[in-house]
Amino acid sequence: MAESGQQDQQYERYEGGSPEAERLVFERLARELMNVQVSNRRAGGGGITRAFHAKAPVAVENARLRFHDDLPAALRVGFAQPGAEYTATVRLSNASGIRQGDGSPDLRGAAVRVRVSEGESHDLLATSYPVSHARNAREFVAFAKAMAGARTPLRKAFGLFVKLPLAVGLGTANRMRKNVRSATRHAVNSLATETYWSRGAILWGDAGPVRYLLRPAPGGPPGSAPDRTDPQFLAREFARRLATTDVVFDLCVQRYLDERHTPVEDAAVEWRDSVTPALAIARLTIPRQDLNSAEARSAARRIEELAFNPWYTTDEFRPLGNINRARKTAYRASSAHRLGQRFVTREPLQNRLLDRPVGTAFALLNRYIPWHRLPVRLSLLNLVFLRKVLRRLNLVDTEVREAPPKAQPVPEPVPERLRTERSYDGTYNDLSDPGMGAVGAAFGRNLKPEYRPDLFDVPNPVTVSRELLYRESFVPATSLNVLAAAWIQFQVHDWVNHRRYKLGDRSVEVPLPPGSGPWYNTPGGPAENVMRIAENEGLEQPGNRPPILFGNYASHWWDGSEVYGGDEQTARFLREPDGGAELRLEDGHLPPGGANGVPLTGFNESWWMGLSAMHTLFAREHNAVCHALRAEYPSMSEERIYHTARLVVSALIAKIHTVEWTPAILATEAIDIGLKTNWQGPPRSWLNQLGLWLFEAHSLTGIPKTLPDHHTAPYSLTEDFTTVYRMHPLIPDDFELREHSFGQRLQTVGFLDIHGGAAETQIRKTGLANSLYSFGIAHPGAITLHNFPRSLQHFEREGEIIDLSVVDLVRTRRRGVPRYNDFRAGLHKPRLRSFEEVSENPETVARLKDVYRSVDEIDTVVGLFAENPPTGFGFSDTAFRVFILMASRRLQSDRFLTVDYRPEIYTPLGIDWVEKGGMNSVILRHCPELAALLPREASAFAPWRTVRPTGNGGLSDKT
Fold it and tell me: What 3-state DSSP class applies to 337?
């Protein structure tokens, strides 16, 4: 069909000048239609209905469509062949989006799904007036918004004579009202005697555009005078008629003549029969039957669950014109909304009114006083408005989207089990967009990428590393313990995974600066004057777009994939044999893996002892949840126990990160309140409640009690998010392992002694409790310049020797993440004009000047480390801006942490486990002997109580 695909372009004009520009318009209009559905629900009662044609007096599955034997040769295309006959589903409806009595003035509609084969069907949609009231999708949605929720004559008049002219202008509103009056003044006595026009055109193969219509076949009985006081009279009349005879329509087509008489883009122009006569080409027969039988009622209920869309067809019959192109997006969104697969959160009126003036006031205030220097409540409100700005301007969808729309088969139904359990690969979290956030989905962006190959090696990343990152002496983060460092790596392994080529297949070469000595890229390999870094595997993009789109080979969701794996094969392999719900453990530890000694778990790259402790702890936690579920619900299957336990453990991990780890590393009162509000709602004071009601009513409850909301882009993690989580300075180079009872030193080890396969030998030797204690009393490194672990600047990973500090710089540059000054400006911070504005440390400023030619050249990671953070913060305010956007987004987008975070899915025990649980409870469940050592008034990520050894074997301690 390449030829006809080219042919139809002459009939169409894309709004905005391109298919992609038009797609963005249609996405916005689709969201507006979902708001119309909410208004109609409020007016009509009940649940969300179809945006239009909410009430169907007639719905049958056993109709037949047969093409005439003398079908003209020019119209013999695809399934349209002489004598061909197919089963069809028919839904006849009232056009309003509010269910109302059949006597109300209204248009009527017909939706027909012709089933050709298992993989092919064709949806035909038509309405009982030959033209649309709207020329295009913008007008169509403007009319829908004006009439949304208008049930009474007064509300309808207000919509038609006030809201509509304000939206489209007086002249357009007059034309639209005239069309609507003409269409609805006609009294309908029977749906069987109405004619239904397609309004918009479709392609009919090489025959070009056509409009189609369904008109009553000659010879049918006329409609009897109905009782118009009966709100169901159309359904009753059709049922009486069908009880005695077939109902038959002729399918007719009108062929395109020219743009003046038969325009494709303008749906408000009638294709007159005098210009292009309607030719009957097939007959649709609804056979005689009892519509009141149990079988017919059951069929009608099934049809109400269907989503009709004119794009459910084949390329030969693809819809044409602006309104039809908008229908694919709009119908898909509104049907998903109706079926509980997509959601809309309407902003309350008071929030909309106050948003701009208060947001502007805070933007002015922030020029002089940063948010973190304001009083606590004012700083929290400031952050609310900053997050609104970031949601509006800093969510960039990078996936290649369909533009223009394409024909497709009817989508497969959602697998029933995936309504109540996480998939293995992240699919079907968003039921309306199964691939969103799944394994392989592209990383999004918070900032427009800057692809600068000319600056890939400027300045030399090895020089940057040696001069600015190399750990000259260990700088501790004294408010944290090493468990905080292990935790964030544990989390990042769940969130992000860029796939790499093998070093020998494709690599980046970084030249060594003069005088730096040779580098060995592989163990036992030759000395070289370049560092070789395995290249990331990029995703292909259309056109001449730069190669900076990458797939995430972990799922983007907070689903515990580092514990469970990212595919079904791995997940099942990690479980007990014979389908048991528990994860495999050997003597309480992860089972050994391959020859490298790294154990079996969901994700085990960059393995070390701290990471092993986290994986072991949460594998045990999974098994504990399984035991509890089995005891509480004896009839629950092992498969259900496994998936419920995964839901519980994943949600518990998300809660720990939200209300414990993050407030520990961003140790300020405002952040502690803000993050706890994200999970459990705000503190219960009238001032907090009033403030949020006025400015951000959706925050009056914790995110788990809200609906999913992706805001301005489909959900994904971002390359910028990956960049700000480069927190390798947290890792010390040396560790002291101690036993927890008497505080005796067991061993002093370097990071490489507990890295890779050596980690498992060491943790089994030391024991989980002693390992946790050893990490709990030790400080991680501060996230700052000159503090990158020496161990990570020269270590072996998968057959290559790498300097991770250089890798971080190279990856960030090549992925198009803007340099630091552009990065902070893109996050609405003032640009820097001099090196002195980067840091208050004179030595840091001097080194920056030595390495970089200008402040605009500073690497993102370097700038983030150099920046002076707010008091109490473990990382920079610039990095924090990505965090406040993405931290709530990871919760807000995930249906298992919002609308499906409920006892029916998790079980009452599961919800209770998450709500009462935390890092302390996890540690104490599996190492109860550590109870006296955990911090009393802080999270498990704060320094623990240290047991000091004494000469007589007794105990003394300090806090």
Answer: helix
Question: Can you give the three-state secondary structure of 418-465, one letter per residue?
Answer: HHCCCCCCCCCCCCCCCCCCCCCCECEECCCCCCCHHHCCCCCHHHHH
**Residue 668 one-letter amino acid:** T
Residues sharing a CB contact under 8 Å with residue 952, sequence separation 6 or more, in sequence order: none
For residue 493, indicate whether it is catalytic.
Answer: yes
Q: Which amino acid is at 462?
A: V
Rounded Cα–Cα distance for residues 657 and 560 (Å): 12
Please give the domain boundaries of the chain with CATH numbers for all domains: 2-338 (2.40.180.10), 349-401+423-442+555-723+891-933 (1.10.640.10), 504-535 (no CATH)
Residue 226, pLDDT above cutoff 90:
no
What whole-number distance in Å separates Cα of residue 73 and Cα of residue 525? 72
- pLDDT, tens digit (0-9, with 9 covering 90-100), for 420-458: 999 999 999 999 999 999 999 999 999 999 999 999 999
pLDDT of residue 951: 60
pLDDT tens-place string over residues 625-675: 999 999 999 999 999 999 999 999 999 999 999 999 999 999 999 999 999
* pLDDT tens profile 347-390: 999 999 999 999 999 999 999 999 999 999 999 999 999 999 99
CA distances from 734 to 429, 491, 610 (A): 41, 23, 13
The neighbour count for residue 189, using CB atoms within 10 Å, is 16
Mean pLDDT of 744-755: 96
Residues 895-923: what's their mean pLDDT?
Answer: 98
Side chain identity, residue 37: Q
Output Rg (C-alpha) for the chain, integer angstroms. Answer: 32
CA-to-CA distance for 156 and 152, rounded, in angstroms?
A: 6
Which ranges of 838-953 does DSSP label H, i.e. alpha helix?
842-851, 860-866, 877-892, 903-906, 908-916, 919-926
Task: Determine the average pLDDT of the residues in 217-240.
Answer: 88
Q: List the beta bridge partners of residue 947.
A: 957
The DSSP 8-state label assigned to residue 369 in this structure reads S
Q: What is the DSSP letter of 872?
A: T
Residues 210 and 204: beta-carbon distance below 8 Å? yes
Tallying the residues shown for the chain, one arrives at 959
Angle at alpha carbon of residue 172, lines to 96 and 184, rounded to 5°: 30
Decide if pLDDT at 250 tops 70.
yes
156 neighbors 146 (Cβ within 8 angstroms)? no
Task: List all residues 6 or more positions away from 83 whose beta carbon is below 8 Å from its beta carbon.
Answer: 66, 67, 68, 69
Q: What backbone torsions phi and psi does residue 538 show, to the nearest 5 degrees?
A: -90, 170
Angstrom distance (rounded) from CA 657 to CA 891? 11
pLDDT tens digits, residue range 125-139? 999 999 999 999 999
Which of 337, 493, 643, 728 is the catalytic position?
A: 493
> How many CB atoms neighbour CB 301 within 10 A?
10
Q: Enter the tokens of residue 507.
A: 């690599």
- Whether the pLDDT of residue 489 is over 50: the answer is yes
Render pLDDT for 531-563 as a digit per residue (tens, 0 to 9).
Answer: 999 999 999 887 778 889 999 999 999 999 999
Instruction: For the chain, report the end-to-end CA distance as a whole number of angstroms.
Output: 76
* Integer Cα distance of 271 and 130 in angstroms: 8
The mean per-residue pLDDT over the stretch 949-954 comes to 60
Distance CA 24, CA 449 (A): 19
How far apart CA 931 and CA 924 sit, in angstroms, is 6
Q: Are 178 and 270 in contact (CB under 8 A)?
A: no
Using alpha carbons, select from 807, 776, 781, 775 the residue that is nearest to residue 727: 781
- What is the Cα 51 distance to its own chain's centre? 23
**137 and 26 in contact (C-beta within 8 Å)?**
yes
Model confidence pLDDT, tens digit, residues 253-262: 999 999 999 9
From the number of C-beta atoms within 10 Å of its C-beta (0-12, 13-18, 19+), residue 647 rates as buried
In a 3-state reduction of DSSP, which class is residue 476?
strand
